[in-house]
Design goal:
Blueprint lengths: L3 H4 L12 H16 L6 E2 L12 E7 L7 E8 L4 E7 L2 E6 L10 E3 L142 E3 L10 E4 L3 E4 L15 E9 L3 E3 L5 E7 L4 E11 L6 E8 L2 E2 L4 E3 L7 E10 L4 E10 L4 E10 L12
Parallel strand pairs: 1-2
Antiparallel strand pairs: 2-3, 3-4, 4-5, 5-6, 7-8, 8-9, 10-19, 11-19, 12-18, 13-17, 13-19, 14-15, 14-16, 14-18
Length: 414
């Protein structure tokens, strides 16, 4: 087997069991020695040191003949002195430096054989042989590249800038799927003129906001067919003018605190209105009360008190305002010398005539009077008290009389 010394080339040694760093080092050394991956110094003046046999370097020196530009040289240390080649158009002249003891001589060299156009094929170029410093500015054109020759792995990160692209050279077919991500696009770089009609499909949009400004949506462009569901907290207070709000038999409107037959309210499309909490304003109903002889409501249970202070004996709430004929039955306990009395009140304030109870239990006397100024939700009451002796005050049959029937009156049980 030939030795490394014989052919100056590293064999393909097996480093597979060595650390990766050692393998990388072997690969680097192999690349340099086997494929000529090395560089020589580049100077801007003649070399001024004593070299080693075979050492070489390059120089570009400003032209001293009055013309602008540079003269280019290649220097070699051979036989204890520097020899240089000056590169001229069409020829290369070889000289010895006059500063050495070697006599000056020159010869015309042609180290580079003239190449015809397209004579170097890709198979003739070693892998990795052409680096960026081997290329002149603007030396690679589209026509010099075969289809598919330049892949993503051949292009350095951030290597292609706007100045390297000709107008309209990037087409849709030249871009791989998903290769352009958001961080590769400058702000405001893509305008509407760069987007083909109907080229952005739903599959190209991610979930989330499509627009950020209300001005980007045309007024009245969103129809009910485009709305799948709408949260109630997206609605603001306002007036639904000239619009019918229809509740289906399966739907309802209810208060947050609604409990059937207990609290809140519910307007059901099937069962109607249920109100457990709150009051009705008088204007809800067709007309105000007018005093009369028609019994509208009554609280019949007998109640009594032995207190000498005014004490509520009877109570009911009325459902609209106006003038009412109020009646109740009253009596006392005990005989002569024992007295008690009662009076009609509204919301705890006396509004009727104080009645002195003259008949003794179980005989009641009916008292009646027309009282105005009632409002929806008022409490109609009878208060009583003992005024002399041991006579307890009794009251029952608190009744509301009007000139026509009305809705039932809410009663508290007094």
């Amino acid at each position: 087997m030939e030795s490394v010394k014989d052919k100056m080339k590293l064999e393909d040694y097996n480093f597979s069991k060595m650390p990766q760093e050692v393998i990388d080092f072997k690969d680097s050394v192999s690349t340099i020695l086997n494929f000529g991956k090395y560089s020589a110094p580049v100077l801007t003046a003649r070399p001024n040191w004593k070299g080693r046999e075979g050492e070489h370097c390059y120089a570009y020196i400003a032209n001293t003949g009055g013309a602008t530009g540079y003269d280019f040289y290649t220097y070699f240390w051979i036989n204890s002195g520097w020899i240089y080649m000056q590169w001229l158009a069409g020829t290369t002249n070889l000289y010895y430096e006059t500063t050495t003891s070697i006599p000056v001589w020159s010869a015309v060299l042609n180290p580079i054989i003239a190449l015809s156009d397209r004579s170097i094929e890709s198979i003739k170029i070693a892998l990795g042989a052409i680096g960026s410093d081997n290329m002149a500015l603007n030396s690679i054109y589209t026509e010099a590249l075969s289809v598919g020759a330049v892949t993503a792995t051949k292009i350095g990160s951030n290597a292609i800038i706007t100045g390297h692209l000709s107008a309209n050279c990037v087409t849709a077919t030249a871009i791989s799927s998903t290769v352009i991500t958001a961080d590769k696009i400058a702000a405001n770089a893509i305008t509407s003129t760069k987007i083909a009609a109907q080229s952005i499909l739903a599959a190209h949009l991610t979930a989330g906001e499509l627009v950020t400004l209300s001005a980007q949506i045309k007024d009245a462009i969103i129809t009910s067919a485009k709305i799948g569901s709408l949260d109630v907290n997206k609605l603001t207070a306002g007036t639904m003018a000239a619009i019918d709000f229809v509740i289906s038999t399966a739907g309802n409107i209810r208060s947050e605190n609604y409990i059937a037959s207990s609290s809140g309210f519910k307007l059901d499309g099937n069962t109607g209105l249920e109100i457990n909490t709150g009051t009705f304003p008088g204007s809800v109903f067709d007309r105000a009360y007018t005093a009369g002889a028609y019994l509208d409501a009554t609280a019949a249970t007998a109640r009594s008190t032995s207190s000498t202070s005014w004490t509520k004996l009877k109570e009911m709430y009325i459902n609209r305002g106006g003038t009412i004929t109020v009646k109740f039955d009253g009596c006392k306990t005990g005989g002569d010398g024992h007295t008690s009395e009662g009076v009609v009140a509204r919301n705890g304030v006396a509004v009727g005539t104080i009645r002195n109870f003259t008949t003794a239990l179980p005989t009641y006397t009916t008292y009646s009077e027309d009282i105005s100024g009632w409002k929806h939700g008022d409490a109609m009451q009878v208060y009583g008290r003992r005024t002399g002796g041991t006579a307890d005050a009794y009251a029952k049959n608190l009744s509301l009389y009007t000139n026509s029937p009305t809705l039932p009156v809410e009663q508290t049980g007094y």
